[in-house]
Design a protein that fits this description.
Blueprint lengths: L7 E7 L7 H11 L4 E7 L2 H13 L3 E4 L4 H7 L2 E2 L1 H6 L4 E5 L2 E5 L1 H14 L6 E5 L3 H12 L4 E5 L3 H11 L6 E3 L10 E2 L1 E4 L20 E2 L2 E3 L8 H8 L4 E2 L2 H16 L5 H8 L1
Parallel strand pairs: 1-2, 1-3, 4-6, 7-8, 7-11, 8-9, 10-12, 11-13, 13-14
Antiparallel strand pairs: 3-5, 5-6
The structure holds NADP nicotinamide-adenine-dinucleotide phosphate (NAP).
Length: 274
């Protein structure tokens, strides 16, 4: 459908956005559903986020938020979901009953990608690399899925401690790995890379898999067409592994549900993405 006066604008706000795969698969899903909407990526500065987010929503549009504006967006939306409140990050916004709602579909997107790889994570032992926004979404999804234990390893240990304290103040499920040499004695059902290491072909691996006693499966949140070196290394060791494309797809599908109150055609989206 060609854009017209009633076309809804669904915008991705971030910086940078030129590499984003979201316009490709969201526009494919919009077309497949025969909706009068268009998904565009808009690069914007921090001081432009409030005006764009509120203006687009009030004009009947909706959108996604990406790096580095997710925390700012979490403070701007009027009706945050529990995922936004607990992670302090918002990646999806829309207007409902005159108020701007916000969700963090990275949480549900990760949960869906992890289920596809290892089945329900209930009872699983998981190692999470990184302690930024994506790691918070991952840890929250794992707590909600009743993972047995979640170990967090980050370059700056203080940030890992803050993440653990913020999401699991009683320290029942989330533990901080203070020294990577501890991992020689540890086995995990799933190891998740929630750092950007691997985005560029010459990046060092987020963690050499030989440093962990046992790795059941590997989920790399980094999206690279052709796969990441870390995923290829895991596959060469016979470890089931997936990159970030499936999580990207599922966070996008959940955002689509918030905007249009209907399910997208997942197969169509997946084909457009891959
Ligand atoms: P972020 O908030 O900037 O956090 C990055 C984290 O990675 C920090 O803990 C940082 O450690 C660590 N880190 C950065 N560079 C590193 C390196 N070279 N080696 C080891 N650790 C490093 O970023 P984010 O929002 O969490 O995103 C992390 C990654 O997840 C990005 O690649 C992003 O594209 C990806 N992601 C994918 C999806 C998906 O759908 N597939 C969704 C969300 C995010 P310090 O604390 O020490 O700085």
């Amino acid at each position: 459908m060609d854009p017209g006066p009633d076309t809804r604008l669904i915008a991705l706000l971030g910086d940078p956005v030129h590499h984003s795969l979201s316009p490709r698969f969201q526009n494919a899903a919009i077309r497949a559903a025969g909706l009068d909407a268009v998904y565009l990526a808009l690069r914007c500065d921090p001081d432009q986020v409030e005006g764009l987010l509120t203006g687009i929503a009030q004009a009947g549009g909706a959108g996604n938020i990406t790096i580095p504006h997710k925390e700012h967006a979490a403070r701007l939306v009027e009706v945050p979901t529990r995922a936004v409140e607990r992670t302090g990050a918002c990646n999806t916004f829309w207007l409902q009953d005159g108020r701007i709602h916000g969700d963090n579909t990275d949480v549900s997107g990760f949960a869906a990608a992890a289920r596809m790889l290892i089945g329900p994570p209930a009872g699983a032992r998981v190692l999470v690399l990184g302690a930024g926004g994506a790691a918070r979404a991952v840890v929250l999804a794992l707590i909600d899925a009743r993972a047995d234990s979640i170990h967090v390893l980050n370059r700056s240990v203080d940030r890992a401690r803050a993440l653990a304290q913020g999401l699991d103040s009683e320290g029942r499920r989330v533990a901080v790995v203070e020294d990577p040499s501890e991992l020689r004695r540890e086995g995990f059902d799933l190891v998740v890379n929630a750092t950007p290491a691997g985005m560029h072909p010459d990046d060092a691996a987020p963690l050499g898999l030989g440093r962990i006693a046992r790795t059941g499966a590997v989920l790399d949140l980094v999206c690279r067409v052709g796969g990441t070196t870390w995923v290829r290394d895991a596959a060469a060791r016979g470890i089931p592994a997936a990159d970030g494309l499936e999580m990207l797809l599922h966070q996008g599908a959940d955002a689509f549900r918030r905007w249009f109150e209907q399910d997208p055609d997942l197969d169509f989206m997946r084909k457009a993405l891959r």
